[in-house]
Design brief:
The complex is a heterodimer of chains A (337) and B (324). By secondary structure, chain A is α/β, with parallel strands linked by helices. Chain A has one domain: Rossmann fold (3-Layer(aba) Sandwich), CATH 3.40.50.970. Helix content of chain A is 39%, strand content 12%. In chain A, the strands form two sheets. Chain A has a seven-stranded parallel β-sheet with strand order 1-8-9-5-4-2-3, with helices on both faces. The termini of chain A are far apart. Chain B has 324 residues and is an alpha/beta fold. In chain B, helix 9 links the parallel strand 13 and strand 14. Classes of the chains: A alpha/beta (337), B alpha/beta (324). Chains A and B meet through strand 3, helix 5 and helix 6 of A and helix 3, helix 4 and helix 5 of B.
Chain lengths: 337, 324
């Protein structure tokens, strides 16, 4: 409870902070990241074809944060995330076809086509939902944490939030309330360095967002968000603290989005070379390197895993595309119970 | 008359009875626990139910409402207090964008049994940021229910019905009525039922909370002149019991709505619009909306009195309707 940020290693330094060991579930972890990457690449294409309405916010490059943290969720835990939330929702176990279908506005979508890209939720899996208002999911996660504390079953509430949300009032109110009530809440800042179109330094007077934990008297942890195992290790510590009554933790995962803010943003405000620098730190090849180095899989086996996942995702998309749009009377349903 | 209690006592009793009846009910807000609420409407709850179920929060209205939402999604039945209704402005996103829309946005995956209590209304000299009748802010946000109790019976009955409801309910408790006396009702309430609180034959007067009592004063005064007002208290604004108003209008052919708060965009105007659209043939004379001045609530006593519709204003408009 020093409030001082614990640094879990410099960004992009080597393959993994945890060395040559790979966990026994490495295939699930890798498959999950590959699934998200393929999903997002396909959503980008769907948008280009005019099949996605409004806007969509893609998370290629941030997969290790979603997967590393969500791999530790257990039934009964609750998850909220941002409108750049496809990755977190898939990592937490939402069905791929129903996720596509929601983004396509189909009846069979996670939310029956009522929410769309920014509003994915699957309560049966504890996915309370992604949220289209910056930071607004955080107070809701405090409430999920209060319910977990009330029920005394060792469950927790996990919230992903963006670097931009650390400047909105709801962030402060939520972190303080979670801390003062010592709730089982874990907040993970996905710091992708841009709040919409603005670089972090233009909007935020400190560089290390996890330092904000000091203001709430809770542990703040900085971690290389492109290192899946480092993310998981940091999250494991925070989860254990939450489940054992030790209160909330603020984790800053340093990462990068390969695409622009939203569909209309080519990301031209980014300095030359920055994207290339981060592509070299792409979390998926980095984790594959860890797997190879540990001798857990051959190049051919990794290629086969990738191909298998991509086939599964493409088939899920074809199913979703074949599903009908919502029936007209659905307009009036679900306002009240 | 030994069973007479005040509205503030009825509110505390309703919360206590819900906490007693259901272990998943929790209650929180600013100064509601140790201090018993700034309006003393929650005295004794903390001592009786303990700090896990009756909690003081930081001054964090967004977090208060959001916490209620998250707790409800995960299976609790929270009651949150926002102290002055005006403070709903601080939590507008959590109420209008989150609380109201969660069920719809998720395709009906969950009900949201959240009760938000807010102290409403003018007349006590709190000036413009602590005196508004804020219920009209939320009329344009489908997904919320809105209760506006005006008696001890309704404060108790509607609050318990709100907590039992699987939808978000905003319960506005009028500050000027907290000392009013009455009895705890023995039957349970349903949201969406208006009450004909004084039968009459000449003018249908629809009024809630403080205005209900002023309309009753006016009715008493006019009875001496042979003008008979039928006073209806809607009790909830969403859902609104149009049928009770329409049935009365069919007999009186005259409609007067008395609303605390400026006239624009309010429940009074909406009610008149619905009645003229659906029951045009019932009207003998044009309907009237008697509302507050189109200004913020002023501080000075004489100005605040002038801002609020009074019994004399109701009398004057009712006479005009009868003489039309």
């Amino acid at each position: 409870m020093s409030g001082k940020t614990i640094d879990k290693g410099a960004v992009g330094a080597g393959a993994s902070a945890t060395g040559a060991d790979v966990p026994s579930d490495w295939q699930n972890l890798l498959a999950s990241m590959r699934r998200i990457r393929c999903f997002e690449d396909l959503v980008k294409g769907l948008f280009g074809s005019g099949l996605v309405r409004g806007s969509t916010h893609l998370c290629q490059g941030q997969e290790a944060v979603s997967v590393g943290v969500c791999s530790l969720l257990t039934p009964g835990d609750a998850l909220t995330c941002t409108y750049r939330g496809h990755g977190a929702v898939l990592a937490a176990g939402a069905a791929v076809d129903a996720s596509f279908a929601e983004i396509l506005g189909r009846e069979g979508g996670l939310c029956g086509g009522k929410g769309g890209s920014m509003h994915l939720a699957d309560l049966d899996k504890g996915i309370i939902g992604s949220n289209a208002i910056v930071g607004a999911q955080l107070p809701i996660s405090v409430g999920a944490g209060l319910a977990a504390q009330h029920k005394k079953a060792g469950k927790l509430s996990l919230a992903f939030t963006g670097d931009g949300s650390t400047n909105i009032g709801a962030f402060h109110e939520s972190l303080n309330m979670a801390a003062v009530w010592r709730l089982p809440v874990v907040v993970v800042i996905e710091n992708n360095h841009y709040g919409e179109y603005s670089p972090l330094a233009a909007t935020t007077a400190i560089a290390r967002l996890s330092d904000r934990a000091a203001a709430y008297g809770i542990p703040g942890v900085f971690v290389d968000g492109n290192d899946l195992l480092a993310v998981r290790e940091a999250a494991a510590e925070a989860f254990a603290r939450a489940r054992s009554g030790g209160g909330p933790t603020l984790i800053e995962a340093d990462t990068y989005r390969h695409e622009g803010h939203s569909r209309s943003d080519p990301g031209k405000y980014r300095p030359a070379g920055e994207l290339e620098e981060w592509l070299a730190k792409d979390p998926i090849p980095r984790f594959e390197e860890v797997v190879r180095a540990a001798g857990a899989a051959t190049e051919a086996e990794l290629a086969a895993l990738r191909s298998e996942v991509e086939t599964e995702v493409k088939e899920a998309l074809e199913r979703a595309k074949s599903w009908p749009e919502p029936a007209a009377e659905r307009l009036y349903e679900d306002v009240y119970r | 008359m030994s069973d007479q209690v005040t509205c503030r006592e009825a509110i505390a009793q309703a919360i206590a009875d819900e906490l007693e009846a259901d272990p998943d009910v929790i209650f929180f807000g600013e100064d509601v626990a140790a201090a018993g609420g700034v309006f003393k409407s929650t005295v004794g709850l903390f001592e009786r139910f303990g700090g896990e179920r009756v909690r003081d929060t930081p001054i964090s209205e967004q977090a208060i409402v959001g916490t209620a939402i998250g707790a409800a999604i995960m299976g609790l039945r929270p009651i949150a207090e926002l102290m002055f209704a005006d403070f709903a402005g601080v939590a507008f996103d959590q109420i209008a964008n989150q609380l109201a829309k969660y069920r719809y946005l998720t395709g009906g995956q969950a009900g949201l049994p959240v009760t938000v209590r807010l102290a409403n209304g003018a007349g006590a000299g709190f000036a413009a940021q602590h005196s508004q009748a804020a219920e009209n802010w939320f009329l344009n946000v489908p997904g919320l229910k809105i209760a506006v109790p005006g008696t001890v019976e309704d404060c108790y009955g509607l609050l318990r019905a709100a907590v039992r409801d699987d939808n978000p309910v905003l319960v506005f408790e009028h500050k000027n009525l907290l000392g009013l006396k009455g009895e705890i009702p023995s039957t349970s309430y349903r949201l969406g039922e208006a009450a004909v609180v004084r039968p009459g034959r000449d003018v249908t007067v629809v009024a809630s909370q403080q205005m209900r009592h002023r309309a009753l004063e006016a009715a008493e005064q006019l009875a001496g002149e042979g003008i008979s007002l039928e006073v209806i208290d809607p009790r909830t604004l969403v859902p609104f019991d149009d049928e009770t108003v329409a049935a009365s209008l069919a007999r009186t052919a005259r409609l007067l709505v008395v609303q605390e708060g400026p006239p624009g965009g309010g429940w009074g105007a909406s009610l008149i619009a619905r009645m003229t659209q659906s029951h045009f043939e019932s009207f003998d004379v044009p309907p009237r909306l008697l509302a507050s001045a189109e200004t913020p609530v002023p501080y000075a006593g004489c100005l605040e009195d002038a801002w609020l519709p009074g019994p004399d204003d109701v009398v004057a408009v009712a006479r005009e309707l009868v003489a039309y």
